Amino acid sequence: MYEIEIRRTFSAAHQLKGYDGDCKNLHGHNYSVVVTVKSPELDSIGIAMDFKVLKSEVDNLLKGYDHKNLSELPDFADINPTSEVLARTVYRKLSERLNNGLLKVYKVRIGESENSAITYYED
Ligand SMILES: [Zn+2]
Prior knowledge:
This protein is α+β, with helices and mostly antiparallel strands.
C-alpha cells in the first residue's frame, strides 16, 4: 500500500457557539491541512497519485475557506467549525471527488497551531 501525503495551509476565522471560554469569541487560526490518500498500486510509470492533482483538488476546496469566517459558511450552518468538523468536512468532500477503484482518501489532519491537531478518518 502507498500513502500519498500533501500539506497545505490556509487562514480563517471562526467562533464556537456554546463553548464556555475564549473560543466563543471571533478569532483566527493559520490552519495546516495534511491529506493522506492510499493506493495499493502504481500506474505504468510508477506513480500512485500525481501530487499535482492532489494539491489542486485540495487547493480548490480550501479556496472556499481561506480568509473567510468559517462560522458564516453554509458547510457549517448546523455545527461549529471546530477542527474536528473541519477535518471531517474536508475528508468527505475530497472522498467524493477522489475515491475510485484504487485511490481512497485515508485521513485528513487539521492543525490549529504547531502543537495541536485533529485527524479524521473512516474505516
Ligand atoms: Zn479556534
